[in-house]
Amino acid sequence: MSVPPAPVAPRTGYSVLMPFTPARPEQILPFAALTQWSAAHRLWQGQSSVGDPHQTFAYAAASGFHVPVGTGVTVMPLRHPFEAALQAQSLAVAMGHPVVAGFGPGAGVFQRNMLGAPYRSQLGACREYVTAVRGLLDGEDVDLDGEFFRCRATLPSLPRPAIEIGLGVLRPGMARLAGEVADTAITWLTPAPYLRDVVVPAMREGAAAAGRPVPRLVAIVPVALDGPGRDPAALALAGNSGHMSMPHYADMLRRSGIDVDMKADPVASAKALIAGGGFLSGGPAEISAGLERYWEAGVDEIVLNVTGVHLTQGPRAALKELEEVLREVA
């Protein structure tokens, strides 16, 4: 049985990120409904220790909301490549729409806690993982005996929509690798100029070396509209302090010209993030102009992230925020 190839498409449009991890699967339904009934293209979820995104998406499908979805990203130490491919295929069958299955190695401390030690090579581990998952989803007899993963298996093919394999990308090395082996590069908290000047050229370099098309670029962008009593820095911290505290995110931000020091001065770090374009805040026209810079940088899909709004004002405010931004930009 032939397996449909993952398409490499031009600008997809605006998508939305679940702004919180559902503790109960029914909590995803208002956001699945927004995706189905609005101009939003796809619904995304990230990795969670509260609920598995594949199961939550499947619940939405069983409730009647069949929409394109993406995982941005699930972390490799939690799933063998065979399990990852099986979950992606099962999700595509359940949703009846294309799936972006995004993967990343996770933070070094998480790797140590799950595996006993970090991957010796982050890029090497990602290369092996994506190679195995791709082969399985393509219906191949995979025989991988690598440094990081071993997989000798074949995944039975099912009639299903296409599945794109994504890699979480922050820095040039992973961007080049995504150009070589992935269908999609997925970024988080990356300012538009950094994507234009660093990530996109590295992706093109990797794709050229591998003799393949340049992958799609997906940017998950934190946003918040102005409003009475709203402090942009507080919103930025509420939704992004965890990422800003991680060494690999701090390094990426420094490379983009944004100095963050969450231990010394979190508020100054949040203000620097806003000034550097890593967090978009303002009126509808300002948000729209900021998002336009992502299109100009070469992004193919923008994922609106209103986590800060949810954490400070709740899910209804977050849903309303997404509706207002989508009306302005989509």
Automatic annotation (TrEMBL):
Pfam families linked: Bac_luciferase (PF00296)
Domain of life (superkingdom): Bacteria
A GO term for molecular function: oxidoreductase activity, acting on paired donors, with incorporation or reduction of molecular oxygen
Coiled coil: none
Domain Luciferase-like: 24-300
InterPro entries tied to this protein: F420-G6PD/mer, Luciferase-like_dom, Luciferase-like_sf
Keyword terms, alphabetized: Monooxygenase, Oxidoreductase
Protein name (database record): Alkanesulfonate monooxygenase SsuD/methylene tetrahydromethanopterin reductase-like flavin-dependent oxidoreductase (Luciferase family)
Origin organism lineage: Bacteria, Bacillati, Actinomycetota, Actinomycetes, Kitasatosporales
